[in-house]
């Protein structure tokens, strides 16, 4: 692990909650292996075509002008490649990357200390940027726009603000919910990339690439099986690959075949659609306890014993993407596919699609329980 990666591991540890073998967040085991599996250039990144092309234009233009690129905001569910892209931005610009995270910046002074230590053209990566404290956020607006901050010395009537110049830098922010960022902060990013869940074909390439790097022997069908159950998420694909490899070593001859992958994934409770325990719990509660909805996301979170944030940022986007859950002005509803997936028969009065569904990418626009 490099110093950068060690710092990142520490920053991530501030937030990570372990959810077993599935779940998009990184655990300690992931972080160690991820360092080895991360693509290190844009050309190596699999999928995310549009983001990759847009980003490569932004970086190429900046290089031609010999200026730090515009600030970049990366948003999307955990495990889709935000940290990877931040590292790639710095690598492609051949500049050092400084890492921190929103929860680590509790005072404006913490941010001032980081900013004043930056050099011309450095990339500052702020993970979980939506969790930064308000005063730090306000300091960041000014730093992003004017490359200057006011450091306040003293308290009360005697306090003075000392302006401090900062060399031009590029801020890369990552967030699981762009909608939670205050408008003024969002507006100061010159480029915003929203990362989407990956297609099975892309995950298949990722699994093969990782297997190559880790020296795992796997068949085409084995790779395809892992890819199709990875919940559209590269981090989960890499994690499942490691768990399936364990299974292949202990219970078979070490080769990851379709049969081995199948048995291992059943053992780890990942279903054919890639739904994990939390995803299934949410659907189950929605259908069995709330008759398919509509029900508010906070109520759902309480019912499954999870934080509202986790349900909204981790489970819900994937359920919407699979077509199992819809967000409506009156709350979340289960779709016919959800009832079918659980092997249940929907009641005659199930609320399918009556009110128009809104996209999962939007912040809790119509939450009934906010
Ligand atoms: N496009 C990609 N191609 C190949 N591997 C990827 C890609 N995106 C992510 N990964 C893998 O998934 C892991 C998690 O990615 P990461 O950037 O840490 O996600 P995030 O910061 O969004 O939670 C990385 O270790 C990397 O190996
Ligand atoms: Mg990350």
UniProtKB/TrEMBL annotation:
Its EC number is 3.6.4.-. It is found in: Cytoplasm. It is an enzyme of class 3 (hydrolase). Residues 18-198 are annotated as: Large ATPase domain (RuvB-L). DNA binds at residues 308, 327, 332. It catalyses: ATP + H2O = ADP + phosphate + H(+). Keywords: ATP-binding, Cytoplasm, DNA damage, DNA recombination, DNA repair, DNA-binding, Helicase, Hydrolase, Nucleotide-binding. Its main location: cytoplasm. One of its GO terms (biological process) is DNA repair. Residues 350-370 are annotated as: Disordered. InterPro entries: AAA+_ATPase, AAA_lid_4, DNA_helicase_Holl-junc_RuvB, RuvB-like_N, RuvB_wg_C. Mg(2+) binds at residue 83. Residues 272-370 are annotated as: Head domain (RuvB-H). The keyword Hydrolase applies. Has 3 domains, the large (RuvB-L) and small ATPase (RuvB-S) domains and the C-terminal head (RuvB-H) domain. The head domain binds DNA, while the ATPase domains jointly bind ATP, ADP or are empty depending on the state of the subunit in the translocation cycle. During a single DNA translocation step the structure of each domain remains the same, but their relative positions change. HAMAP family: DNA_HJ_migration_RuvB. This is Holliday junction branch migration complex subunit RuvB. The lineage of its organism: Bacteria, Bacillati, Actinomycetota, Actinomycetes, Propionibacteriales. The gene is ruvB.
């Amino acid at each position: 692990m490099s110093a950068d990666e060690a710092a990142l591991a520490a920053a991530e540890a501030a937030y990570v909650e372990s959810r077993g073998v599935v779940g998009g967040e990184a655990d300690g085991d992931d972080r160690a292996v991820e360092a080895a599996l991360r693509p290190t250039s844009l050309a190596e990144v699999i999928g995310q075509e549009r983001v990759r092309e847009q980003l490569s234009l932004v970086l190429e233009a900046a290089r031609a002008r010999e200026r730090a690129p515009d600030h970049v905001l990366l948003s999307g569910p955990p495990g889709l490649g935000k940290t990877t892209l931040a590292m790639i931005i710095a690598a492609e610009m051949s500049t050092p990357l400084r890492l921190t995270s929103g929860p680590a910046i509790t005072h404006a002074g913490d941010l001032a200390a980081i900013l004043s230590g930056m050099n011309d053209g450095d990339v500052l990566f702020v993970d979980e940027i939506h969790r930064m404290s308000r005063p730090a956020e306000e300091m960041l607006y000014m730093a992003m726009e004017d490359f200057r901050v006011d450091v306040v010395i003293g308290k009360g009537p005697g306090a003075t603000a000392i302006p401090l110049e900062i060399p031009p830098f590029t801020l890369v922010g990552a967030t699981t919910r762009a909608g939670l960022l205050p408008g003024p902060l969002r507006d100061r990013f010159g480029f915003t990339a929203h990362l989407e869940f990956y297609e099975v074909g892309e995950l298949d390439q990722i699994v093969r690439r990782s297997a190559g790097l880790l020296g795992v022997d796997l068949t085409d069908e084995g790779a395809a099986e892992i890819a199709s159950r990875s919940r559209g998420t590269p981090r989960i694909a890499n994690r499942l690959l490691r768990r399936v490899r364990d299974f292949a070593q202990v219970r078979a001859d070490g080769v990851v075949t379709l049969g081995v992958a199948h048995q291992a994934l059943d053992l780890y409770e990942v279903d054919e659609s890639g739904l994990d325990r939390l995803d299934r719990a949410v659907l189950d509660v929605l259908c069995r306890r709330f008759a398919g909805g509509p029900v508010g996301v906070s109520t759902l979170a309480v019912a499954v014993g999870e934080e509202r944030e986790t349900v909204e940022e981790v489970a819900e986007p994937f359920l919407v993407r699979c077509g199992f859950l819809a967000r409506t002005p009156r709350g979340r509803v289960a779709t016919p596919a959800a009832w079918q997936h659980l092997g249940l028969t929907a009641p005659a009065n199930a609320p399918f699609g009556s009110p128009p569904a809104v996209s999962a990418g939007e912040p809790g626009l119509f939450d009934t329980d906010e």
